[in-house]
Amino acid sequence: MARHGLSEELYANVSNWADHPGFSDAERIAIEYTEKFAVDHTALDDAFFARMREHFDSEEILEISVCVGTWLMMGRIVMVTDVAVSCPLELSLDPPGSDRDTDA
Fold this sequence. Notes:
It is a single chain. Helices cover about 50% and strands about 0% of the residues. By secondary structure, the chain is mostly helical. Helix 2 (about 25-40) crosses helix 4. The longest helix is centred in the C-terminal third of the chain and has 24 residues, at about 60-80. It is globular.
């Protein structure tokens, strides 16, 4: 996580996104969007998207939406089907072919 600018302290404060000083304004609006997308999508009105467009263009908003929607879908599938993870995956955030790519 540290390689990508993330810390345990920042991760531990995601639920405190509105008040934690470690988040940028763009990160705050992305987290707020994610929360509203998941639990109160009717609150995503024109005024909210105007605030979001101060930090993200339309393509980035779509990318965030697809990412959030995909994770919500996967979580719902796991809960509804009562699927238990028996062998967790370790994912690399490094692009294929990078110096840190050990699968090549």
